[in-house]
Amino acid sequence: MEPLAIPKGSLVLVTGANGFIGSHISNQLLLQGFNVRGATRSLARIEALRVRFEKEYGSGRFEGVEVKDFGGPGAYDQAMKGCAGVIHVASNLSLSTDADVVCDSVVTGDLNILRSAAAIPTIKRFVLTSSTKAGYWPTPDVEGIRLDATSWNERSLKDAWMVPDSDPLKPLHVYSASKVKGERAMWNFMEEEKPGFVLNAVLPDLNFGEFLDHSTARNESTGGYLADVYRGDLSSMMWFAPVTSHFVDVSDVARIHVGALFSSDVTSERIWAATTPFHINEILRILRKLYPHKKFAEDQAGFGNDWSVIDTARGEELLRRQGRKGWIGIEESVRLNTKDLETMEGRERELGIGGK
Fold first, then answer.
1. Cα–Cα distance between 126 and 178 in angstroms, integer?
2. pLDDT, tens digit, for every residue of 91-121?
3. Cα–Cα distances in Å, from 162 out to 17, 254, 339?
4. pLDDT at 352 over 60
């Protein structure tokens, strides 16, 4: 086995550490022997995680740092001091329809954090959380589409500006375009500036799985969509239903980020993190199986399937290197995501204050 690109015990900066993906990345880093500095806009929002990690891993392994303006020049200069690696998760998730504002903010923020990293000689590895939406725009019921590290979502680079604001998919096109532009700007920076660290990008699709921090509102991430469906509100899942997705468990996404950080042979790579294609009826089927006593919405009509074939071999290889047999399945991921909802509803039933 090749030596690690950065040794265990090293300090790693994780931006957006209090979020769904960021909290799992922090957890996996700690679990695998690294120390974490978690960046957040407010230390209060990361306190519950800090307490949890201190109980599980001991004091001094995880610390929070407040960065109020994630996109500002020099915003991370102090936060990066003493770090050997950076995992940049934070991005513009406003779902605004203003493509110029969103894309400019993402590109500016991504370049500013790279410039800060380039000025810190101890930093040897940098991992970006990109998105499958930087790689393609799904086309339902079309076979023969193959996606790999060279694939880009060219459609959203047009539609983010061309489709009217009234189009319900406009915010997703804008988000997708921002991920394309931000990631491409980072690769261009690496080519032109040649800093002293390696950049890798991870492209996750829709994340389900367990919440580590329940003080973080579920509606701040796609991980919260299942709670809505569980409670009978299909609106969040129906919003992007015309754009069929591939599921991935958030803990697998975290492991792939960590593998891309410490694996010496992973250099300048785009690594897809996506497994089973699905739509809302698959989620409803799983929920009915997991919770047979509860009534869920009827199946919804008119949705196609994403038959795109994604090359996920590198991501799976990184999972296996970390002792995993492969990807976590969608049924298990849905169970992990909703298990606390079942417990909460059970307590309500015992108290006679609600639930069916």
1. 19
2. 988 899 999 999 999 999 999 999 999 999 9
3. 34, 34, 42
4. no
Mean per-residue pLDDT over the chain, rounded: 92
Output the CA torsion sign for 315, 317, 319, 321: negative
For residue 344, the model assigns a pLDDT of 67
Largest CA distance in the chain: 64
Specify the pLDDT at position 253.
98
pTM for the whole structure: 0.94
Bridge-based pairing of strands 277-278 and 245-249 is antiparallel
Q: Which amino acid is at 265?
A: D
Cα–Cα distance measured from residue 134 to residue 109, given in angstroms and rounded to the nearest whole number: 17
E-assigned strand segments in the chain? 11-15, 35-40, 62-66, 85-88, 125-129, 146-147, 198-204, 206-208, 245-249, 270-273, 277-278, 309-310
Distance CA 203, CA 86 (A): 16
How far apart, in whole angstroms, are the C-alpha atoms of residue 26 and residue 34? 9
The residue type found at 197 is F
3-state DSSP percent of the chain in helix, strand and coil, to 5: 45, 15, 40
Taking only the tens place, the pLDDT of each residue in 44-60 is 999 999 999 999 999 99
- Residue bearing tokens 């950080």: 261
Residue 347 pLDDT exceeds 70: no
Planar angle of CA 184, 190, 196, nearest 5 degrees: 150
Q: Which of 9, 17, 266, 264 is nearest to 129 (CA)?
A: 17
pLDDT, position 353: 52
Non-local (6+) Cβ contacts of 308 within 8 A are: 136, 138, 139, 145, 146, 147, 246, 277
Token code pair at residue 82: 């003493």
Q: Which residue has the higher pLDDT, 313 or 306?
A: 313
Pairing of strands 146-147, 125-129: unpaired
Give the per-residue SS3 of 161-228.
HHCCCCCCCHHHHHHHHHHHHHHHHHHHHHHHHCCCCEEEEEEECEEECCCCCCCCCHHHCHHHHHHH
Which tokens belong to 243?
Answer: 């754009």
